[in-house]
Amino acid sequence: MDQTRGFTLLELMIVVAIIAILAAIAVPAYGRYAFRSRRADGQELLLRLATAQERHYATFNKYGSLSDLGFASLSSDKGYYTASIPASSSSAFTATATPAGDQVGDKCGNLSINNVGNKTFSGNETNGKCW
Question: What global pTM score does this model have?
């Protein structure tokens, strides 16, 4: 009697279905992780800006613009955020990092920090873990 070895079509289809289910779970989880890891780029940019603002305030007794602080570029190191400091008074500032490039779809939206250290975000992230 000749015994054939191998997999049946049904067994192969079950394996393909299992792989598809695992991929359907893993891909969105990886996307959320990627947004979260790129968000650190914007947080680092804002913390550098806040430190530079405090240094400028300690020296000149007023907060400065991006050019006063010596920032040549408005984008973060990896380019996922761009910075802005709207016209601030001499006694207060709010620095904002706006998502750019691949980070635009992040649920946290714009990240901000002010002179008192309050950290906020403009998006609709419900768990509040943007900072």
Answer: 0.76
